[in-house]
Amino acid sequence: PDFKSSLIGQRSNAAMFTRTRGVLNRLGLKPVLKALSRSPVGTVVRRIGRRNEQSRSIDLNSETRSQLGDHFEPHNQRLEVLLDRSLPRWVS
Predict the structure, then answer these.
(1) I need a labelling partner for 38 at 20 to 30 A (CA). Which of 14, 17, 69, 88 fits?
(2) What whole-number distance in Å separates Cα of residue 21 and Cα of residue 19?
(3) pTM (2 decimals)?
(4) Is the separation of the CB atoms in 33 and 22 below 8 Å?
(5) pLDDT band for position 87 (50/70/90)?
(6) Cα distances (Å, whole numbers) of residue 63 to 6, 42, 67, 73, 77
(7) Does the pLDDT value for residue 12 go beyond 60?
């Protein structure tokens, strides 16, 4: 109950600019990364990442996809209730 995080509600992914993040952190330029991720450049990178994420999806045969969906459906529904948030991408 006392759990608090500054990350809750953020839409940006901590893994954004993965290689750049490491270099900038080592150089002590973390504020530059923050500014970059919140800028229009960050928006473009996130859009590209989403497109790449979609193209990397695995093609499952329909029977396997259905079995997995059936197995995880009650777990996903419970998680939606616990988070008080809809998870439409988790439900196929």
Answers:
(1) 88
(2) 5
(3) 0.38
(4) no
(5) confident
(6) 40, 38, 6, 15, 21
(7) no
Distance CA 38, CA 16 (A): 11
Question: C-alpha dihedral over 9, 13, 15, 18, to 10 degrees?
Answer: -130
Query: pLDDT value at position 73?
Result: 92
11 Cβ neighbours under 8 A, 6+ residues apart: none
Look at the block and give the residue holding tokens 């002590």.
Answer: 28
* Two tokens, residue 59: 């093609």
Amino acid at 91: V
Q: Any residues with CB less than 8 A from the CB of 20 and at least 6 apart, and which? A: 33, 36
Residue 67 CA: distances (Å) to CA of 27, 60, 79 = 48, 11, 19
N-terminal to C-terminal alpha carbon distance within the chain: 32
Q: Which two tokens stand for residue 25?
A: 């952190």
